[in-house]
Amino acid sequence: MFLKMLLTTVCVALGVTSAHAQAYPNQPVRLVLGYAPGGVVDFTGRALAQALTKTLGQQIVVENRPGAAGAVATTFIAKTRPDGYTIMVMDVGTVINPLMRKDVGYKIGEVTSFGMVASAPVVIVVSNNFPVRTPQELVAWGKANPDKLNFATAGVGTAPHLGAEQFWPHVGVKAVHVPYPGIGAAFPDVLSGKVQLAFSSIAGARPFIADNRVRAIATTSLKRPAGLTDIPTIHETLMPNFNIDIWTTLAGPAGTPAPIAARLNEALVAAQKDPEFVAAMEKIGAEAWSTSVKEANDILLAEDKKWAPLVRAAGLGDQ
Amino acid sequence: MIDNLALGFGVALTIANLSYCFIGVLLGTLVGVLPGIGPVTTVAVLLPLTFSLPPESALIMLAGIYYGAQYGGSTTSILVNMPGEASSVVTTIDGHRMARLGRAGPALGIAAVGSFFGGCVATLLVALFAPWLAEVALKFDPASYFSLMCFGLVGAIVLAHGSVLKSIAMVGLGLAFGLVGPDINTGALRFAFGVDGLADGIGFVPMAMGIFGIAEVAYNLERRRADSTLATRVTHVWPSLADMRHCLGSMIRGTGVGSALGLLPGGGALLAAFAAYALEKKVARKPRRFGEGDIRGVAAPETANNAGAQTSFIPMLTLGLPSNPTMAMMIGAMMIQGIAPGPRVMTDRPGLFWGIVASMWIGNVMLVILNLPLVGLWVKLLKIPYRLMFPGIVVFCAIGVYAVGNNVFDVFVMAFFALFGYVALKLGCEPAPFVLAFVLGPLMEQYLRRALLISRGDFGVFVAEPISLGFLIASALLLVAIAAPAVRKKRDVAMQE
């Protein structure tokens, strides 16, 4: 193990000068993750690193650089050399950070995607002692009981939170946002009914749904997600085209040469078919999401357009 | 009950599971001793390796890392005044003082014995009462947690053995530094000054290492010759029988306090060690000796720590509620194994539940066997001369702090707090109340604002909930108890004049 690390280090050290001379990739690739070990992005990144090692034919070395909802790592990537040897798994935070913070160290145009990795929908769960069973009943209850509704999320500026900020005005209900540091911390208050509902990741809510300790009343993707096919989506009941995704993408600094981007995309799409990767994604309630390089960058731009007005309207961040 | 435990031991006593348990507690002890790397990182890095194991083995090993780290964490606190985690901060107060007095051996020994005692009794509680105790966790709403933290903060003042006023000042400073970072309700950054490294607030590990470890090195340097050693005379290597008898009461009380607080998923286990210390200081005869190297000041928090570590498995295993990041990761491990943590684990997978409980006993036995012989080795380390030891400490701290987040900024944070800690030491201000306020402040704010969000700004919730009201009354009483002697002393002085 130590020998392997040593060799890798030596290779990285020596390889820098000759990297451009041979076909990409001819040395180990560093995969940066913007969160501490243990979270969903870390888990996705590590599963992807294993699959990519096989399909890219080079060792992928995972490196955690946590901080500021991924902004520390993204800033590092934006300033790194665009040679495809330092890449990152980014998530919604990459788009939302510059919208929330004036002085974040990068602009969205300074990073480029090589393809989407996975997506996971959000599930709306309610406390068992809350008398609501469908999305329509939720809206009716909210209108009949003004200023009574509380909803929990994994924190300010997360995709479930911004999705909720988009949802409530559309259905004409006022609800108070109660943020938690991670959705796990929210469940004591949701179980006891202090907070009637949560916009949760499927992974976070699954054990509680399985035990019938909370009720899932809706999901937020266009298509019903696997495992929750008997639960309606918001798209089909209340708000056509409502689509909140907790997505991840493989990205690097802008200016990465097109052939390298294409090679990474090819390896990524192949890695997404790896049965171990598929199984790993299933365990966190996510699905592999294969796109081309162009599609992925269009998605980043679309996400930026979608969240900017919501962040402003909700008065979030430094404003 | 007996049947259940028999089933559990049947699972835990296979050769494979015994080995995983041993690997877990060994790794836990090691990461507990090393600065920077904590159980969270270790569990996260090992998580992928456990996917291919049977769920029982995976969880037995991960659990071993978690409570093994509680044993290891006391070692650096006692030897070099460096707490790796919030839970071992109070151990530095009397533990390191004992080491300076040449009693590092008994301090380390009693820490291991106390951890063993607390671990065993708390595991028994888990086995006997898990399903009933689990419900306690759900009785705590945000208002109750706020009042509990409030009680903890008042207790932080008791920690200092010097001036109450200086202690209050340090609590205030700790609260102020805890404010750095994003506002929880809006995400706006507070006091980050455009520095990315401050966008999540100040990290606990760099802060604690600077303020305790490096500041201590600087303080020692100015007073001693370079060729001397930390422990000039080592009297005993083991705690004597009299030490043990002296500590029995502290260990029993520590177990009680630790077990109760460990049950609360919203940060109760964090309070365990220093609640136990504060309690000891209040009930003990000759409390003046606390802070001067009193062995009870090591026994109580270390026992409480480990008791809390064991009972924090109750909300995790029975409700699926994590009480700390390590537990959250264990829930992740269970889900990846296809097990939904919750009330049904006990009925659907009795082998898993009782296997983990049984393995905790076995693991605690392994830990005490592993740690007691190490005491001799650690004590020898203190004989290393300063001129070798101090550069070593500084280098290890810098590496450890950098390794946590691969971030150079954290090393600067450590340097800043080293300076801060040194100045505080020179002024006779103790760091423990500062650190506890730093840790509790953000939690308190979080619960306060959450409770007020839910009540739409009505402060009545804090007295309407019986649990919350109870803790607020207790805080007020404790405050009076702290203030009264000081006031009386002043009045006496005034009378004499």
Number of helices of chain B: 21
The radius of gyration computed from the alpha-carbon positions of chain B, rounded to a whole number of angstroms, is 22 Å
Strand order of the largest sheet of chain B: 1-2
Structural class of chain B: mainly alpha
Q: Can you tell me the residue ranges of chain A where pLDDT is under 50 for at least 5 consecutive residues? A: 1-21
Number of strands of chain A: 10
* Total strand segments of chain B: 2
CATH superfamily (homologous) name of the largest domain in chain A: Bordetella uptake gene, domain 1
**CATH T-level fold name of the largest domain in chain A:** D-Maltodextrin-Binding Protein, domain 2
Oligomer: heterodimer
Q: Please give the radius of gyration of chain A in angstroms.
A: 21 Å
Quick rundown:
By secondary structure, chain A is of the alpha/beta class. Chain A has twelve helices and ten strands.
SSE layout and pairing:
The complex is a heterodimer of chains A (319) and B (497).
Chain A: H1 2-18, E1 29-33, H2 40-56, E2 60-64, H3 71-78, E3 86-91, H4 92-100, E4 111-127, H5 135-144, E5 150-153, H6 159-171, E6 176-179, H7 187-192, E7 197-201, H8 202-210, E8 214-219, H9 234-237, E9 245-253, H10 258-271, H11 275-283, E10 287-288, H12 293-313
Parallel strand pairs in A: 1-2, 1-3, 5-6, 5-7
Antiparallel strand pairs in A: 3-9, 4-7, 4-8, 4-9, 4-10
Chain B: H1 2-12, H2 15-33, H3 39-50, H4 55-80, H5 89-100, H6 104-139, H7 142-159, H8 164-178, E1 181-182, E2 189-190, H9 204-221, H10 241-262, H11 268-283, H12 296-311, H13 313-319, H14 325-336, H15 344-348, H16 350-381, H17 386-405, H18 408-426, H19 431-454, H20 461-464, H21 466-496
